[in-house]
Amino acid sequence: MKTANRKRWVDIPLARKVLIAVGSISVLLLLIDSLLYFQVNRIIRRMDTVYSSNVNMTGLSESLDTVQDDLYSYLSVNSSDALEEYYRSEQAYRNLLGSLNLEITSNPAKLLERKIRRMSNTYLALAEDAVTAKRGRNVEKYKTLYDETQNLYGYINSYIEELNSQQFRNNSSSYQTLREALTYLEVSSMVIMTVMMGISIAILFLLTKEMIVPLTNLAETAKLVGQGNFSVKMPETDSRDEVGIVTRAFNTMVKSLEEYIIRTKESMEKEQQMMEKELLMENHLKEAQLRYLQSQINPHFLFNSLNAGAQLAMMEDAEKTCVFVEKMADFFRYNVKKGMGDASLSEEIEAVENYVYILNVRFAGDIHYTKNIDKRVLDVRVPSMILQPIVENAVNHGIRNIEREGTIHLEVQKDGGNIVISVKDNGKGMSPERIEEVLSGHAGDGEEQSDSTGIGMNNVISRLELYYDRKNLMEIYSEGEDKGTEVILTIPQTREGDETDVQDHAG
């Protein structure tokens, strides 16, 4: 049962796991806050009740004073306004008396309330008789009745003060108890909230660890694979969340890459052996140099490109992935097939287009590529893999990492007996010193070598000179920083010795 629960948990997507954890913690905290709120509110209401009795007694005493004063004013002045004020205060006092106890009980406070209420009723009756006597002009009677009300007034006030004092003592004791309860509640709430915070942090830590650790291991493993170690793998997992899916896909990719690299190495070893035998037999030094330069392929570019294809397979549909793989296959097929000979300009242009497509898949379509080709020269033979390295150099050293959109424009035109090929970009530009270094063969490949096909500008210049037996076939122009660069190749339409061959073939 425990195993089944574990499997169900690891199969839950990561976003839902986070939502469940955060939601559970939030609900629990809400419940605790609600409980603490109701407890504090209950204690506050009890504290209000404790002191309301003292407030009521104070109000009762003040109301009695008002009745006595208004009675005296009426008996002294005998005006309708004074009589009206008396009746108003007398009614208010009666309303306050309604809250006092009338039942017989053993509670001292309740007994005092009963005495106050009974004496107050007697007091109000005498006061009413005095008012009646006043209105009847019976001076002697209302004076006597007023004296009696004055005496009762004193007794009632003394009982009210006694009751007020007694209630204050009781309320003080109750207040202390409530204060202790409130203090205990404060401490308890702090302890509970601290424990809850600890539990919440622990849950989030475990959840984060469950997600981060596999991803960290994946990153470290990918780093090793990038360094050429294809024997490493991620631990096998049966989870169906995003981490499990990525892990299984990564292991599959590494296995495929390992098999591909093994086959490539075997093929390259066989080709190398054949080249050595051919060099020994034919003893053609220039052709041997040409073929050696053309056989260079950087495995890092291969790995990064195939890695982009694997990511595309995971994120997009199979149709786009099929197109990408076809472009990759065409590109590397051309590299391997034509790496030891020449090719047509049409094939060279197609290799450039495949290369640009691969880069746009890897870097989200950041490269804008245009072309202007004279169709009359598409069948002309040229050294293979000379245009793609120039475009690659324009991407790596020109338009990569610029803020504006990068553009590459390829133009091939016939100019008399020559063919003029132009590769122009809108990138960083080149200084005159850097142009001189490149053309002289002293530039070096730079740090981008690890993310390239491995065929640099020096390689292109050397192979052009070997192929046509001429120098100064390449020119580079740049107006300055951030103004782009243009590389121009001016090559013969035919090599020396090829014209005869062409004529013989035509015949």
What does this protein look like?
This protein has 507 residues and is of the alpha+beta class. The chain has two domains: 12-210, Four Helix Bundle (Hemerythrin (Met), subunit A); 284-506, Histidine kinase-like ATPase, C-terminal domain (Heat Shock Protein 90, 2-Layer Sandwich). It contains 14 helices and seven strands. The chain has helices at 2-10, 14-77, 80-97, 108-135, 139-226, 242-282, 285-294, 299-315, 318-337, 345-362, 387-399, 432-440, 457-468, 498-506, and strands at residues 342-344, 367-373, 381-383, 406-415, 418-425, 474-477, 485-492. A five-stranded mixed β-sheet has the order 2-4-5-7-6, covered by helices on one side. Helix 2 (14-77) packs antiparallel against helix 5 (139-226) and helix 6 packs antiparallel against helix 8. The chain is rod-shaped and about 155 Å long. The relative contact order is 0.06. Mean pLDDT is 77; it is low at 1-5, 281-285 and 500-507.
Please outline what is shown here.
The protein has 507 residues and is of the alpha+beta class. It contains 14 helices and 7 strands.
List keywords for this structure.
five-stranded mixed sheet; Heat Shock Protein 90; single chain; 507 residues; Four Helix Bundle (Hemerythrin (Met), subunit A); disordered N terminus; alpha+beta
> Based on the structure given, which CATH architecture of the largest domain is correct?
2-Layer Sandwich
Number of domains: 2
Average pLDDT, all residues: 77
Radius of gyration based on Cα positions: 51 Å
Instruction: Kindly state the number of beta strands.
Output: 7
The separation of the N and C termini measures 86 Å
Structural class label: alpha+beta
Count of individual helical segments: 14
- Overall geometry: rod-shaped
